[in-house]
Design goal:
Blueprint lengths: L3 E5 L5 E5 L5 H21 L8 H4 L1 H5 L1 H11 L14 E4 L10 E3 L2 E4 L2 E4 L9 H11 L9 E3 L5 E4 L8 E6 L1 H9 L23 H4 L46 H9 L22 H10 L25
């Protein structure tokens, strides 16, 4: 969420106006409105208490196993195995809580299971705070240092903070833990990041407020034999002044090279010798031609053999999930 709104002035320029921080009452009202509208939306789609989930839920029809895992995780129950349908085993001192009550305070609110946390604000250019928030959002689902193996083969997980009902530990069978981790897998073709308002993909003013990426071209490194890298600085034609560089907007989808750079921090289109930009000359799909090229370059031309997934019978190593 941004801490303000965009509006156009008399010259049709988009300006940003900072809004004051919300108070506890506003956060509580927004949470109650979200809870009320989500419940109405589920009822309209036939997913309410009186509807038929098998007919209304497309995920249950397309991916019944995944839908069963989701439903069991939401209700805190086991989806598969000998204890299917039972509640998850928890340890701690029980505390009676009222889940339907409205709790508010410190810009946080919880209404009927819907919670809203608005107490974190990152100022502009606060890179350290932004990195901390990104690390928190990208943390793994399970902290292995808090996961231990009990003598009976079950897995004990220590919670970082005590739950509102007093739970401090959760006990799983190995298969039950795998089922809970599988429930974290998003459905097929499901977007994990959603943008709304002026940041939405189809917003009319989005092009005016999203920063544009600069052009990445080859540097002044001298080209070597067989390299087509050229200097980025080009002299303008005679009779013309220096032209402003063209800064195109980023395409809708990332290229394969950009994805490799973002995920693996490897620029596959950078020449390792002169650090200039390389370009794709041709895409070779013939297996015979690919084999001959790899053999000419002295590289292996066959895929590595597939090893057996199960350990040897005489091996002492055991893999516990």
């Amino acid at each position: 969420m941004i801490d303000g709104v965009y509006a156009s002035d008399e010259e049709r320029r988009v300006r940003f106006h900072v809004l004051p921080a919300p108070d506890d009452a506003e956060v509580a009202r927004v949470t109650a409105r979200v809870a009320r509208r989500v419940v109405r939306l589920l009822e309209r789609r036939g997913l309410g208490p009186h509807g038929d989930p098998d007919e209304a839920d497309p995920l249950r029809r397309a991916q019944p196993g995944l839908a069963e895992l989701y439903g069991a995780s939401v209700h805190g129950r086991i989806a598969d195995g000998p204890r299917a349908g039972h509640r998850v085993t928890t340890l701690g001192e029980p505390i009676d809580v009222e889940t339907s009550a409205v709790t508010a305070g410190s810009l946080c609110a919880s209404v009927s299971g819907f919670s809203l946390h608005a107490n974190v604000c990152i100022p502009a250019r606060a890179r350290r705070q932004l990195e901390k928030l990104c690390r928190y959002a990208a943390r793994p689902p399970v902290a292995t240092e808090r996961l231990s193996l009990l003598p009976d083969g079950r897995l004990l997980y220590l919670l970082k903070h005590r739950w509102r009902d007093g739970t401090t530990h959760v006990v799983f069978e190995p298969l039950e833990l795998v089922g809970k981790l599988a429930a974290l897998v998003p459905p097929p073709r499901f977007n994990l990041v959603r943008y709304h308002g002026i940041l939405a993909p189809a917003a009319r003013w989005r092009r005016d407020i999203v920063p544009k990426s600069s052009v990445v071209e080859a540097g002044d490194c001298p080209p070597h034999s067989g390299c087509a890298a050229r200097s980025a600085k080009r002299k303008p034609p005679e009779g013309q002044g220096q032209q402003e560089p063209h800064i195109p907007s980023r395409p809708r989808n990332y290229s394969w090279a950009e994805l490799m750079r973002r995920v693996w921090a490897v620029d596959v289109l950078e020449c390792p010798r002169c650090f200039g930009r390389m370009r794709i000359v041709a895409a070779i799909h013939s297996a015979e031609a690919t084999r001959r090229i790899l053999q000419y370059l002295g590289l292996p031309s066959r895929a590595p053999p597939i090893a057996c997934a199960s350990p040897d019978s005489d091996s002492d190593e055991q893999v516990i999930f």
